């Protein structure tokens, strides 16, 4: 087993067994030491009280001195920041509070001079309600009308989707589906044929669905061409396996050194879908391993395995990990964060 250690979050990675079928992954990955940065709170250089990309650039030597050689940057795209930047208004533009696209390109260049890789956070499942795509969709613009999931009317929301739709937004008849907050309209990657029950559910190969997928691939290529070294994909399962298999094929062919790591929570499924690695942390065994009381307040023990008192239990974690490892070995990596922006620190 190899470890990728971060000073802000830890990735414990099970190395693929390279016996049998060959498995390609970026050559730098097995020696990567990751550091996650939320730009807003990292380093402010213009005195407005908000961190910025120039601030990250100014601290690259510091990161290098810590042994960091890979940085995961939380979303820095244009956004109203309803959800810390995980509500993207423009995937192709750096948020004004953080700087400019030229600043991002400078960050890539300066990081590479120091042997540091830059991984961007890619929000694939939804945009902001302020996205021009969504505004056009809410106006029934023919190009964008099906890029988001809308019902035919406001009054017949299926019971199985209760609480998932926002009613009465804009002039368009119907309700739109959200992914999390009301301000995050869900992008429409289509539905498998065996799941389609309603007229508003489009198939995976619908022309408008395919147009959206192509545009999202263009976003990835845009930032790779600008100098990024890969992506950590937020809520990766939102886009479906077929999309990621296509993306991985493109990466292997055109960007073989670029990383794809997912927040899927099911490594076997994520790796099978094309990711090099997947976060494995949304399960109770993980909470047993680390000190995560707030996840399971009804647990009578609430002990971390690493607690000094020695009252923790690693059994459930090992059971889940072993199951995923057996299904991913030789194919990809399992990533176990100690902490990140979604979780309290150990």
Question: Can you walk through the features of this model?
Answer:
The protein is of the alpha/beta class. The protein has two domains: 2-125 and 209-337, Glycosidases (TIM Barrel); 128-188, Oligo-1,6-glucosidase, domain 2, CATH 3.90.400.10. It is built from nine helices and 13 strands. The chain has a nine-stranded mixed sheet. Strands 5-6 form a two-stranded antiparallel sheet. Residues 1-10 and 14-21 have low confidence and may be disordered. InterPro entries: GH (IPR017853), GH13_cat_dom (IPR006047), O16G_dom_2 (IPR045857). Residues 36-345 form the Glycosyl hydrolase family 13 catalytic domain. Belongs to the glycosyl hydrolase 13 family.
Question: In terms of topology, how is this protein built?
Answer:
Blueprint: E1 2-4, E2 11-13, E3 34-37, H1 53-58, H2 60-65, E4 70-73, E5 77-78, E6 90-94, H3 101-113, E7 117-123, H4 132-138, E8 165-167, E9 175-177, H5 207-226, E10 230-234, H6 241-254, E11 259-262, H7 267-272, E12 277-279, H8 284-289, H9 315-328, E13 333-337
Parallel strand pairs: 3-4, 4-7, 7-10, 10-11, 11-12, 12-13
Antiparallel strand pairs: 1-2, 2-13, 5-6, 8-9
């Amino acid at each position: 087993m190899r470890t990728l250690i971060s000073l802000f979050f830890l990735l414990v990675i099970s190395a693929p067994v390279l016996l049998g079928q060959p498995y390609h992954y970026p050559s730098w990955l097995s020696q990567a030491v990751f550091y996650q940065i939320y730009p807003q709170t990292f380093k402010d250089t213009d005195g407005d009280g908000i961190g910025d990309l120039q601030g990250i650039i100014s601290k690259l030597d510091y990161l290098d001195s810590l042994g960091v050689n890979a940085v995961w940057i939380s979303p820095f795209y244009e956004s109203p920041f309803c959800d810390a930047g995980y509500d993207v208004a423009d995937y192709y533009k750096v948020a004004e509070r953080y700087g400019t696209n030229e600043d991002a390109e400078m960050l890539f260049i300066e990081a590479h001079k120091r042997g540091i890789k830059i991984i961007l956070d890619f929000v694939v499942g939804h945009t902001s309600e302020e996205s021009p795509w969504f505004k056009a969709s809410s106006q029934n613009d023919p190009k964008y009308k099906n890029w988001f999931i809308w019902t035919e009317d406001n009054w017949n929301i299926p019971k199985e989707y209760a609480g998932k739709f926002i009613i009465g937004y804009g002039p368009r008849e119907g309700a739109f589906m959200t992914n999390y907050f009301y301000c995050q309209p869900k992008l429409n990657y289509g539905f498998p044929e065996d799941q389609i029950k309603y007229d508003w559910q489009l198939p995976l190969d619908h022309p408008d669905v395919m147009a959206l997928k192509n545009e999202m691939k263009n976003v990835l290529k845009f930032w790779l061409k600008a100098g990024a070294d890969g992506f950590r994909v937020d809520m990766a399962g939102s886009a479906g396996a077929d999309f990621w298999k296509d993306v991985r094929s493109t990466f292997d062919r055109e960007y073989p050194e670029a990383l794809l790591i997912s927040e899927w929570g099911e490594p076997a499924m994520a790796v099978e879908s094309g990711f090099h690695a997947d976060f494995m942390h949304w399960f109770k065994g993980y909470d047993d391993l680390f000190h995560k009381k707030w996840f399971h307040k009804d647990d009578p023990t609430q002990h971390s395995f690493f607690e000094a008192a020695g009252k923790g239990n690693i059994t459930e974690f090992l059971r889940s990990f072993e199951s995923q490892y057996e299904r991913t070995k030789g194919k990809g990596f399992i990533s176990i964060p100690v902490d990140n922006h979604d979780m309290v620190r150990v």
